[in-house]
Amino acid sequence: MGEVVAGDQHSQIREATVSPEALAAEAAALSARLGEARAAVTRVILGQEEVVEQVLVSLLSGGHALLVGLPGLGKTRLVETLGTVLGLDGRRIQFTPDLMPADILGSEVLEEGEHGRRAFRFIRGPVFTQLLMADEINRASPRTQSALLQAMQERRVSVGGEILDLPAPFHVLATQNPIEQEGTYPLPEAQLDRFLLEVEVGYPDLAAERAMLLATTGAREERPVAVLRPGELLSAQALVRRIPVGDSVVDAILRLVRGARPDLGGTGGVSEAARQLAYGPGPRAAQALMLATRARALLDGRLAPSLDDVAALAEPVLRHRVALSFAARADGVRLPEVIAALRSAIG
Q1: Closest by alpha carbon to 281, among 330, 342, 237, 326?
Q2: Whole-prediction pTM
Q3: What residues pair up with 93 in beta bridges, in sequence order?
Q4: Where is each AAA+ ATPase domain found (predicted)?
């Protein structure tokens, strides 16, 4: 998040001189392709339209997502479906307390050649993929979680004194059970902040669950199909960063993020909602919200984000970057209520 990717100077100059009409045409064409991809995902993942939208927003923004939900709600199936539809190479890691960093990054093995000469060879781990599913990420030890932290932030890993780049694109979709906490290690705030969005996966409504019941227990089951070609996601991510953002949206993002800081508050002082928080979000939250609003606009076929995009994405951007104070928890205050109060202040 927030890193400037070095590129060809001439290509940057060309991007800067692209006309608004050409940008609108490119956005319209790409938005249509993304619409096909979303439709392909929702044909397989029933009753989770908002979840699908938020995960796609995370990927279009170039970020990672944390999926929080009870077992059996289709989190694993969603990740596998996204990998197929988006044309990404995907792998899955089942996190357990005995998982070691080498199980994620890879390890060096000593091999003997034809003439008896021995040498170390690095065998790449499952992190060398485009879409990594970290299943039940909070079951791994802090040491193993820290090994994934560098990969998530820097898109590269250090092994045996060498720095190895990860494939592009590289995204982590992690899952977490919100109820069963026995034998788990809470994710540190530094790692939580690396997730662009925290996506809450809830129960489907009655109609969706009925359709799901009929679709998944019959003789034939809907299978995901590839829609996007390799590289199209990278093009979409580059376009997201070129989408214009109005001053009203920028001001709303700043009011929301700065207003959630109990030691700062907005320009008018600390709000009542911020007083109920132990700590607030950093600048990375504003960066995440800026990119996510652009991605949501592109996904909906719009050329510029609106205040509705800020309001819709405020909770998934903030909920893992803030925490209730002890007094607020004692009074029975819920975090969604605090975020709703912060969101109402942006207009």
Answers
A1: 342
A2: 0.86
A3: 134
A4: 61-205
Number of H helices, E strands in the chain: 14, 11
Q: What confidence category does residue 172 fall into, taking pLDDT thresholds of 50, 70 and 90?
A: very high
CA end-to-end span of the chain, whole Å?
27
Ranking 180-189, 223-232, 251-260, 300-309 by mean pLDDT, the lowest is 180-189
Judged by DSSP in three states, 36 sits in helix
| CB distance 55 to 202 below 8 Å | no
* DSSP assignment letter at 266: B
**Structural contact between residues 336 and 72, judged by C-beta atoms closer than 8 angstroms:** no
Q: Which residues contact 228 (CB under 8 A, 6 or more apart)?
A: 33, 37, 85, 86, 87
Indicate the domain borders of the chain.
238-347
Q: What is the DSSP string of 73-115?
A: SSHHHHHHHHHHHTT--EEEEE--TT--HHHHHEEEEEEE-TT
What's 238-347's CATH class?
A: mainly alpha
How many whole angstroms separate alpha carbon 16 and alpha carbon 111?
51
Which residues, in sequence order, are CB contacts of 304 under 8 Å at separation 6+? 243, 244, 245, 246, 249, 297
- Per the CB < 8 A criterion, the answer to whether 309 and 47 are in contact is no
DSSP-assigned beta bridge partners for residue 200: 68
Question: 112 - beta bridge partners?
Answer: 118
Residue 54 identity: Q
- For 192, the token pair is 């939580």
67 has which bridge partners? 175, 199
Interatomic CA distance for residues 339 and 61, integer angstroms:
22
Cβ burial, residue 111 (10 Å; 0-12/13-18/19+):
exposed
- Distance CA(121)–CA(1), nearest Å, equals 32
73's torsion region: left (phi>0), alpha (psi -120 to 50) or beta? alpha
The answer to whether 117 and 129 are in contact (CB under 8 A) is no
